[in-house]
Structure of Lysozyme:
Amino acid sequence: MSNGNGTVDINSASNIYNAASEGMGTEIYVEPQPRGTKSGSEQFMEAYTFLTKKGIAVRTIWIKITSPINWPNNQTANTDFINKFILCAWKHGLLVGIYTNWYDWEQIIAGQITPNQRQIRLWYWNLLGSSLNDATPPTFADFRPFGGFNAPMVKQYAKNTPICGICASLNVYLKRSGTKVLLANMRVEMANVTVDNLPVTLPIVAKSSEKQLQSKQLGQKATTYRNKTSPLIH
């Protein structure tokens, strides 16, 4: 939704189905158009309605809060826009995550947006540039609390990395194993859909529809994929 008043990526649904057919977990994020005439709640509803009409059960949705130049120079209005998106998502029973970093957040918002901010997941990015050589360590050691966020769930640490014929961004996320927290590596971004290997115990932003899950073949593939050992970072 980055141009004009914004529109849903029409390829997102097919990307989700293609990922599910290979047993991959999927996540959805919205890149909003904050300078358009549509409110945050309207932009959420467009994305949510589009996906649900395609038979996709959305459990969590991420909103991308980056590139301050694309946002109005009005932090109060920006906060209102984001809150309307979040509140509408909560009203529909979804979990909400935000993709940002401390600098983008400081320029666009500059503070906490809601007293319930602990309910919002954080996916932050920290890169030295746009090439693989500009990657930061795939750990959370560089994280510092900001804007009401005290702990992250995901970190993007590299961009434009060639993997299987595509340029991908690399992310590291928390993987819980009993009471022990591990770091699991390798998530691949394609358009507005992130293909990952998040375990089912963590919030999954979108899942295949019940009709898909009834497919024995898909279920077997998904089970096989989840049983594979995730690469760990020590």
User: Anything to note?
Assistant: The chain has one domain: 12-227.
